[in-house]
């Protein structure tokens, strides 16, 4: 037979274990004071390494952007046919994505410095590339026809949201950070906020246009 004192001790130990197992761990995240000079009063503040731009929608169709067009060449009327080639290598600078737009759901940044800081989050935003084509390839066309070379970027519209960062607490209480006045923010890695859009370049190609007809693409 189990002694009564041993049974009571076992019961107490089990009760203590239940209490311990039901205590929620204290969150490591605490409100942080962010200087108004850094946040410029935005309700959401991006955080490098945490804030990311997610693609949530994109157009089903693309469009062709002519990023360069050469001078036209007209085949003389008195010949049987013309063999034409631009005859050199053409290098054109363009951007992988253009028309980037960010909407943060906050007031506009007076200095624009904070708004510009977001642009690196938009995938490939403003990345300039050089596109080189060897136009030594030649085409044959008829007397009276007009031909010229083009370089083309195939683009697609995309849109998305920002996720993660610091979010201002719903309080008028101010704080001091970095030697200046600030407000309290809480970090979240998953909270969505704001929107963005861009036009991303999906393909690059070149060809000749003859009498307005775009020829077969080549690199």
Number of domains: 1
Helix share bin: 10-25%
Which structural category do the helix and sheet elements fall into? mainly beta
Largest sheet: number of strands, sense, barrel closure: 10 strands, antiparallel
Task: Summarize the structure in words.
The protein has one domain (27-212). It has three helices and 14 strands. It has helices at residues 4-21, 36-39, 113-117, and strands at residues 32-35, 44-45, 52-58, 63-69, 73-74, 82-84, 89-95, 97-103, 128-134, 139-141, 146-168, 174-177, 180-210, 213-214. The longest helix has 18 residues, at 4-21. It is rod-shaped and about 85 Å long.
Describe the structure concisely for a colleague.
This protein has 219 residues and is mainly beta. It has helices at residues 4-21, 36-39, 113-117; strands spanning 32-35, 44-45, 52-58, 63-69, 73-74, 82-84, 89-95, 97-103, 128-134, 139-141, 146-168, 174-177, 180-210, 213-214.
Please describe the structure with a list of short key phrases separated by commas or semicolons.
219 residues, mainly beta, 10-stranded antiparallel sheet, two-stranded antiparallel sheet, 50% strand, rod-shaped
Structural topology:
Elements: H1 4-21, E1 32-35, H2 36-39, E2 44-45, E3 52-58, E4 63-69, E5 73-74, E6 82-84, E7 89-95, E8 97-103, H3 113-117, E9 128-134, E10 139-141, E11 146-168, E12 174-177, E13 180-210, E14 213-214
Antiparallel strand pairs: 1-13, 2-11, 3-11, 4-11, 5-11, 6-10, 7-9, 8-13, 11-13, 12-13, 13-14
């Amino acid at each position: 037979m189990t002694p009564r004192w041993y049974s009571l001790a076992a019961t107490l130990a089990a009760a203590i274990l239940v209490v311990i197992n039901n205590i929620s761990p204290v969150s490591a995240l605490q409100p942080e004071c962010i200087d108004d000079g850094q946040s410029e009063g935005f309700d959401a503040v991006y955080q490098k390494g945490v804030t990311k731009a997610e693609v949530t929608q994109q157009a089903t169709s693309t469009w062709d952007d002519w990023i360069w067009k050469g001078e036209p060449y007209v085949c003389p009327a008195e010949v049987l046919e013309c063999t034409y080639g631009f005859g050199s290598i053409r290098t054109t600078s363009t951007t992988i994505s253009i028309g980037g737009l960010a909407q943060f759901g906050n007031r506009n940044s007076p200095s624009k410095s904070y708004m510009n800081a977001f642009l690196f989050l938009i995938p490939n935003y403003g990345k300039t590339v050089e596109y080189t084509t060897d136009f030594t390839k030649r085409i044959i066309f008829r007397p009276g026809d007009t031909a010229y070379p083009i370089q083309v970027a195939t683009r697609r519209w995309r849109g998305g949201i920002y996720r993660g960062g610091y979010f201002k607490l719903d309080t008028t209480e101010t704080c001091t950070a970095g030697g200046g006045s600030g407000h309290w923010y809480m970090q979240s890695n998953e909270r969505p906020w704001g929107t963005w859009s861009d036009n991303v370049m999906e393909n690059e190609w070149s060809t000749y246009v003859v009498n307005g007809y775009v020829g077969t693409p080549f690199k």
